[in-house]
Please model this.
Amino acid sequence: MDRRQLLGLMTGATAVGALAACTDDKGPSPATTSPSVVPSSTEGVQYVDGAFASKHLKGAQAPWLVLYPPGHPPGSRIPVLVTLHGTGGDQSTPWALRWPQTSRQLQAEGLPAFACAGIKGGDTWWHPRSDGTDSAALITDEFVAVLKGLGLDVSRPAVYGYSMGGVGALYLGATVGKERVSSVVAASTPFIPSFEQSQGAYDSAQDFAQHDIRALWPRLEGIPVRVDIGDRDPFLQCNWDFLPRARPVPEFHLTPGGHDADYWGSVALDQLRFVARGFRA
Model:
């Protein structure tokens, strides 16, 4: 979507009152809760799970989960999508992508097979914090080692995140670079405009300046990036304030929905197609 198309959508949505301004003191908190998604049925999906004491979470347990696509049992050497949860979430994020249905559809379309992994990283916004936690290093230093130990191909994983996890996915992509990440998908992401409006997402103005995903955005050059937002999402204005001028230009999708599991599930298939194409590249 180019700038002209995006601005056109902005005009239309404003007319129907779809906007909620992140820059307004009465707007949404960046810490909007995004609870875990527990499936009613695993529908025959093969998976492995576990937990480890993370040095990057000051010894706290970090539960994790890996879901496998049809025809690829645990132990298969296939690429992996690492998913990052929003505030209040946990390792169940892969289920939010409707994996039983979407993985079968990807297989039917002949797209590359990959595993889908999630981990509970706490509500520290997926970057180093002053309290000594570092949920970004939890991924790059510890969880990737777990995934490698399972036999998965971790040479260039993809990264997905929703809400707070969208911030984390973009931060990881920008900091580790195109040589180590195949693609990044961010859904319902708050592009926080300032430290004053971060409401706990950053420890200080210096922390915000160092880890602001808008400032780090140019470092995503060479990585396929997809951004999704619902037309009733409280962070819609944050996306529109930033994305028209973002360079490199992401693949942007505005579709009906709010800030909830129904929306994340509704766009999951298209997002996973994007991820699969990144593994094929």
Observations:
- The radius of gyration is 18 Å.
- The longest strand covers residues 153-162.
- Residues 1-21, 23-28 have pLDDT under 50 and may be disordered.
